[in-house]
Specification:
There is one protein chain. With about 425 residues, this protein is an alpha+beta fold. It folds into three domains: about 150 residues, Orthogonal Bundle (Globin-like), CATH 1.10.490; about 60 residues, no CATH class; about 180 residues, Heat Shock Protein 90. The chain has 14 helices and seven strands. It is elongated. The structure holds adenosine-5'-diphosphate. The site of adenosine-5'-diphosphate has 20 residues, from helix 11 and helix 13.
């Protein structure tokens, strides 16, 4: 049997629709209040926010009246542009979300405050405008996000190009640096070979000394490379022990005595408050950092110059300062010298271009020193009026060493107590 309801559908009752303008005017104040309260999520609704909502509602009204949703464009784009960089970074589509929320609230308001017919007429008029708005905002947000991602990708690509460039520059300088001691060793071993053949064994001693120098140089370059890779990968293990800063400075002064004499340089060591305090640090590593700085001061200071080491105590730190009367460092290089291989582009500084008092290495000394200090929780920086090989304005390196009076490892505390030294 055919379904009676289907065969003879009851015709909907004719109802009197209210003109849409009257419905819109009726809804407006309730809509602004409800949407404002909901979007403010329990916080006070600011007057300017209410004004914005009023403007939005009036533009919806205008769009309905003129059957042209383009009236919404300006306000929607204004809102969409207010999304922050962080929103975009995190892929938060704030304004699309907002419009969706407004749609849901509009339906609620219509159901609660209007007659059924009014609600149907009202929603039939405004929902297409909202849908249009959602489209405008989503497109804008998508385009902005794509632009943001492309921008980020361009940055990454630039970084990778730099890494690639510095990698090949590193290979060329490393090869150059390694070649010098290898040539030295080859030369001495060829001479030894000849001497052995000619039975002149007596002079072998000096040749062996030359070879040892070459091997030593090779070892220090390779050690530096290993240190840099450990620092880069956070693998630097610190062996904390109690130590006095002045002891390290003294030990290093003895080590560089010969170099100072050969180069007619004077080293002035000023005692300072805190230099005799026993503090916990990795003496080998901190000494290595200090040695890199002092050796640079020797390398980049012309004959007859002065290197002064002094310091001071700061809250929680001991600062050691190494000041020289050398060629100085330009403002632009004062940061890049701490980047590994930061000086690679300056081929004139490498072995072949050495002058009497300057000469670059692979450019690892300062990055290693900085890495060591940072691993301790300290820092390293330089001050210099600029680079001038004639006027020699000098450079001042500051090492900030944390003054740990507590052993990071409890077993160390016993050793500290056993030493019976003062902690302050
Ligand atoms: P390297 O000496 O092997 O090149 P470093 O990392 O020790 O590498 O130093 C990086 C660069 O910083 C040097 O090449 C030099 O240009 C500059 N520099 C370091 N110390 C000094 C200094 N005391 N005076 C002038 N320039 C310096």
């Amino acid at each position: 049997m055919p379904d009676a309801a289907l065969c003879s559908p009851t015709m909907p009752k004719k109802t009197n629709s209210t003109p849409i303008q009257i419905v819109m005017a009726k809804v407006r104040p309730v809509w602004i209040e409800r949407v404002g309260l909901e979007l403010a999520r329990g916080m006070e609704v600011r007057t300017d926010f209410q004004e914005q909502l009023g403007r939005f509602f009036d533009l919806v009204n205008q769009s309905v009246t003129t059957v042209d949703p383009a009236w919404m464009d300006a306000i929607l784009l204004d809102w969409a542009k207010s999304s922050t960089e962080t929103d975009l970074d995190q892929g938060l589509y704030q304004v699309s979300f907002l419009i969706n929320h407004i749609i849901a609230l509009t339906i609620q308001v219509a159901r609660e405050k209007l007659t059924k017919q009014e609600a149907l007429d009202f929603l039939a008029a405004v929902i297409p405008i909202y849908t249009y708005g959602l489209g405008v905002v989503s497109r804008y947000e998508m385009e902005t996000r794509v632009a943001h991602i492309s921008n980020e990708m361009a940055k990454v690509q630039k970084k990778m190009e730099r890494v690639d460039k510095s990698k090949s520059a590193f290979i060329s300088v490393a090869a150059h640096e390694l070649k010098t001691p290898i040539t030295l060793i080859e030369g001495y071993s060829a001479m030894m070979h000849d001497m052995i053949q000619e039975n002149k064994g007596a002079n072998l001693q000096s040749l062996l000394a030359g070879m040892t120098t070459g091997v030593g140089r090779l070892r220090s370059i390779v050690d530096d490379m290993i240190d840099v890779s450990m620092i880069d990968n956070n693998l630097l293990q610190l062996n904390f022990q109690p130590m006095q800063v002045n002891q390290m400075i003294e030990a290093l002064s003895l080590e560089v005595e010969d170099a100072l004499r050969t180069r007619h340089l004077t080293m002035v060591r000023k005692d300072f408050h805190g230099s005799k305090d026993w503090i916990y640090l990795d003496p080998t590593r901190i000494q290595q950092a200090l040695a890199n700085i002092i050796n640079n001061a020797i390398k980049y200071t012309p004959d007859g110059g002065t290197i002064t080491i002094y310091g001071r105590t700061l809250p929680g730190f001991i600062e050691v300062t190494v000041e020289d009367t050398g060629i100085g460092i330009s403002a632009e290089n004062q940061t890049s010298i701490f980047d590994k291989f930061g000086q690679l582009g300056r081929v004139e500084l490498h072995s072949s271009g050495k002058t009497k008092f300057k000469g670059g290495g692979p450019g690892l000394g300062l990055p290693i020193a900085k890495g060591i200090l940072e691993a301790h929780g300290g820092s390293l920086w330089v001050e210099s009026p600029g680079h001038d090989e004639t006027a020699c304005p000098g450079s001042t390196f500051h090492m900030l060493i944390p003054a740990r009076t507590e052993a990071p490892d409890p077993n160390m505390a016993k050793l500290f107590d056993a030493l019976g030294k003062n902690k302050s």
